[in-house]
Amino acid sequence: MAGRGHVDVSERRLRPIYDALDASNNKKAIQEADKVLRKQKDLICAKALKAIALLRSSRRQEALLLAAEVAAQEPIEEATLQALTICYREMERGDLVARIYENAVKKVPQSEEFLSHLFMAYVRLGEYKKQQQTGMALYKVAPKNPYYFWSVMSIVMQALTTEDEKLSQKMFLPLAERMVEKMAKDTKIEAEAEVRLYLMILEKQKKYQDALEVVVGPLGNKLISEIELQSLKQAELYVQLEDWPKANAKYRKLLLTNPDNWLWYIHYFNSLFHLVDSGWTPSEADEGSSDDVVTGTVDMAIAFVEERVEEELKNGKRLQRGPFLARMELLKRLTERGNQEAADKIGLPADLLKDYFIKFGDKPCCFMDMRPYVSMLNPDNHAQFVEELQTYTEIPDEKTGDVSLPADVQAMQRHICCVGLARSLGLQEQLTEGDREELVQDLTRRHQHGLQFGKDLLPTDVQPSDSYLLMAVHIKYAVYMKTKKLGLLFELIVMLEKGVASSPSNAQYKLILIKLYILLGAFHPCKKLYDNMEIKHIQQDTLGYFYACYAVALGHLTPACSILSAMLKFFSANHKDTTEYIIAAYKYGSFHKIPEIISFRERLNLSHNYSALAVERMILDFIMETTNPEQMRELLDYMEISPEKDEIKWDLLKDNRDLTVLSSWEPKERELTDQHIELSFCQDRQWLRLRSLILRSLAAVILMSQPAPLDGEHSPQKQDASRNGEAPVEHGNTLTSLILDINTHVQEVEGQAGSENMSLLCGPPPTRMKVYLDGQHHVLLTSIFQVAVDVHSLETTDLNQSQELQEKIAKNFDCILKTFEYVLDSMDTSIASPGCPPQVYPHVLEGLVLLVETLCLMTLVTSQCHVMLKPMKATLTKKKRKKKNPTVVVPQVFDNFKTFVDSLVQFGEKLHTRLTEVNTVITAVDVSGLEIDPAEKEAISVETVWNKVKESYQISAGETSEVLKQKLQLLRTIRL
Amino acid sequence: MTTLRPFTCDDLFRFNRVNLDPLTETYGLPFYMQYLARWPEYFQVAESPTGDIMGYIMGKAEGRVAQEEWHGHVTALTVAPEFRRLGLAAKMMASLEQISENKNCYFVDLFVRVSNKVAVDMYKKLGYSIYRTVLEYYSGDPDEDAYDMRKALSADVKKKSIIPLPHPVRPEDIE
């Protein structure tokens, strides 16, 4: 063993390497490490540090080798182990971290430290069985409770993750239970976390009675971290046990302590009706005022709720909504059960609602509170009901009899609530066009008037009168839904832009604005709006659907790259980010959070958005970043796409969009329903499937024409795998079946026509599928993919015997050119036309963008075909020269290919002209020529909105024509 | 009407109405995860009858017991605009204080922008007082000072923890 002095020397020698690494000077770190190693060969820590520096200088392969060299010596000094851990973790090779600690533990089995590192390494890997064993080994070395329970929790994780329910119920959970029981018997349970784990184990086995005994027993007294945890647990378990009298009494008692807790009322009512249905009758014990009184009859419950109301009124403090809402809930439930007699005892729905309105109408949430209960009213009385409510808000002007504007913010809130109710009850549906416009005007006027009530607010606050404007927007948008007049969108945008000017923090405004601009085909203004809301991190997953995919769809390709990569960064960091905290949860004994965090990590990983963004990003990269076949191959290697393997777990994909973010006052027929959401998610998945098939097909083409693996910096694992005796993949076959998949998929989608997306204001946006299929892009792409397959087959066929194949290729060329011409012609409509506001045709823009994309993809495939054809031609020419035999005929395919490329170039040029025209047309349409009185010119007007739209279209045209130009250059260089 | 319950990971998918408020920061995942893993009881969410998230409070317990510095800390407290003026913040604060009481904390503290008068007044109403000013605590353009506000809990019998400091401090001087 080295003496202490030796350690100090090593430490001193290593210091410069650490310093260089800390300063991110990897080159220096490598030099310093080499210097140390020249002096002291056996100082392997220097090697481990050098490996880190190599890795960080993108020399992964060398780093891996050097680290393996260190690991092979099975080090046990802390510094070396630490350095190796860092190195492997940065390589995302957590498995190797586990290996080095396994070896260290073998050498020093009594080391608490190594064992605990090993445990955490297994946690990172999700190796629950090994976690369990390591936890026990730890407990043996150092008999501390946490270690024991780490092991127990690891068994629970095995139970939760096994697909074999029987194994879970018959083996893992009973085992975990026995382990905890043993500790309980020896009265060794110390911490609350341990009790909660015990309860988790019992509940997972549905042993609610046993769990209850734990909760009410001495161990239950440890449940103190959350308020009322012990009581709450008891109440929950009574519900699970369907012990309704006890559940009822428990929730009743909880409500006495806090009469505002909604969940408790719900459980209280549920238990009540179970008791009523089972014919429960009170015994003497329930008559008194004891704490555990059961209120199991309707009359008792009514009395209880009325008491809560009375108490609340007596309280003198700010009223809590709980008792009043609970009273309406009870009334609703009784009515639904047909118990009119009892319902009448509480009162008439209209009276209760009015009472609620009088008490809480000045709160912004009043509308939301009342909405579930207005359904109790007779539809015939809706109008009258709202009118009556209005009488509480409006004071007619004594002189004129006109209804005046509200005098204070409270009166205004009440009025807002009334308008919201009127809208959601459908009272505005029958209005004539004139009346509707008048209503919009009135709401706009009230919005303006109401701004005075918020003039002292900070700019970070939302203006209380904003709801007026939002409701006006909803009303107008509903008209747009019916008429599809784009002019309305301009008006709506003007309204909302003005709204933002007066209430800059209102996110509702901005989100709707984004939606409307996109309906107009204008992406550019959205970016600023989105950034302004500081939507980031997890919100990219939940709110990204508002805008991310439109950057691509509307041809703002450069911003699209950065938007997509920023979003993808969030997803790819998720695994590392969350795993650290699973470890923390073990350390701090938050066992109940461990399954939660793990499924959260999974939900993000399986997010549909994640896959969709990744696929779009990769397609975009091919289009933007590659100008020759070699680059395509490099890019593909970097992306690690394998065409034969579908990496997307379709059945497990999660819809993480937050579709509740926008306020809505819409009547039932325009309410966003679960069916809408499901349908839209299904369409999203169909779109993703199409896109991912196209991407994989492209990958297959590249691998087909350039089969030799590249120097494997990027994908050592992949190479390992192929060396391990896997049969080489025939990419031609893969591509053939992918083409088949695309065709089948398109047929399926086309067969489901008629399920149009309603494009509700608060609803999910539609996909690009319709524009795509209308534009025949799938036909263009599958045909060119088929050409690639057939050209690939030519490689292995005698050219003179391949007449049939050549004809097939020629036919596909022909099909592509004809289709392309047809599509281009069909889009020969103007992108905009003058008017007030001017007309724009966003679908024309979308179609053009897609056509550019498809032409780019076809160019890439064509260039790969060229790679395959070129050697064939060369061999032929050689043969010709060698034999000096003029009878060798040049096969038709070469000529056909040339003609095809030439025609494609011509079409590309035409498309390019179209894009230039977009620019000209859009610039020519100028609203300044319209007769707008200069005096009426406002800071925000149709004109200013038009200018934004115009600018955005110009960018779309500019960016797409740039990309197109670049690809045309590539096409022009293709010469056989 | 509120259901106050522990915040769960899945709530992160639904808290947009609250977090779109410009003064409510949306943090990276590690920040939330750290609280959920270490102080799950201190991270509470208020839910409306319709299941919407009305607001949430995030906090922790920290500090040395020996120095009587063991205390509850409010990291974030926020309520969606449509659920303001219902006394929700007060309820969530009371819950955090109760949890801190159960842990025998000496006091509860929090930081607030000096410009956020509404919040400062609200905390004062809830029994908090300004313990010290922390200079340029909030980065931005320009940086903004914070009040470190405190409320003594029953463990601090003599209310020593809330005696105001005479001088402002720099962010690097606070623990």
From TrEMBL, chain A:
Comp. bias (Basic and acidic residues): 711-723
Annotated InterPro entries: NAA25_NatB_aux_su, TPR-like_helical_dom_sf
GO CC annotations on file: NatB complex
Gene3D superfamilies listed in its UniProt record: 1.25.40.1040
Region span, Disordered: 710-730
Coiled coil (UniProt feature): none
Family per similarity comment: Belongs to the MDM20/NAA25 family.
Name the UniProt record assigns to this protein: N-alpha-acetyltransferase 25, NatB auxiliary subunit-like
Organism field: Branchiostoma belcheri (Amphioxus)
Gene name as annotated: LOC109463618
Automatic annotation (TrEMBL), chain B:
Record carries keyword Nucleus: yes
Coiled-coil regions listed: none
Keywords assigned: Acyltransferase, Cytoplasm, Nucleus, Transferase
GO MF assignments: protein N-terminal-methionine acetyltransferase activity
InterPro entries in alphabetical order: Acyl_CoA_acyltransferase (IPR016181), GNAT_dom (IPR000182), NatB_acetyltransferase_subunit (IPR051646)
Gene3D superfamilies in the record: 3.40.630.30
Domain N-acetyltransferase: 2-154
Entry GO terms, CC: NatB complex; nucleus
Transferase keyword on record: yes
Compartments, as annotated in UniProt: Cytoplasm; Nucleus
Top-level EC class: transferase
EC number: 2.3.1.254
Known catalytic reactions: N-terminal L-methionyl-L-glutaminyl-[protein] + acetyl-CoA = N-terminal N(alpha)-acetyl-L-methionyl-L-glutaminyl-[protein] + CoA + H(+); N-terminal L-methionyl-L-asparaginyl-[protein] + acetyl-CoA = N-terminal N(alpha)-acetyl-L-methionyl-L-asparaginyl-[protein] + CoA + H(+); N-terminal L-methionyl-L-glutamyl-[protein] + acetyl-CoA = N-terminal N(alpha)-acetyl-L-methionyl-L-glutamyl-[protein] + CoA + H(+); N-terminal L-methionyl-L-aspartyl-[protein] + acetyl-CoA = N-terminal N(alpha)-acetyl-L-methionyl-L-aspartyl-[protein] + CoA + H(+)
Main location group: cytoplasm
Subunit structure: Component of the N-terminal acetyltransferase B (NatB) complex which is composed of NAA20 and NAA25.
Its job: Catalytic subunit of the NatB complex which catalyzes acetylation of the N-terminal methionine residues of peptides beginning with Met-Asp, Met-Glu, Met-Asn and Met-Gln. Proteins with cell cycle functions are overrepresented in the pool of NatB substrates. Required for maintaining the structure and function of actomyosin fibers and for proper cellular migration.
Record family assignment: Belongs to the acetyltransferase family. ARD1 subfamily.
Protein name per UniProt: N-alpha-acetyltransferase 20
Species this chain originates from: Branchiostoma belcheri (Amphioxus)
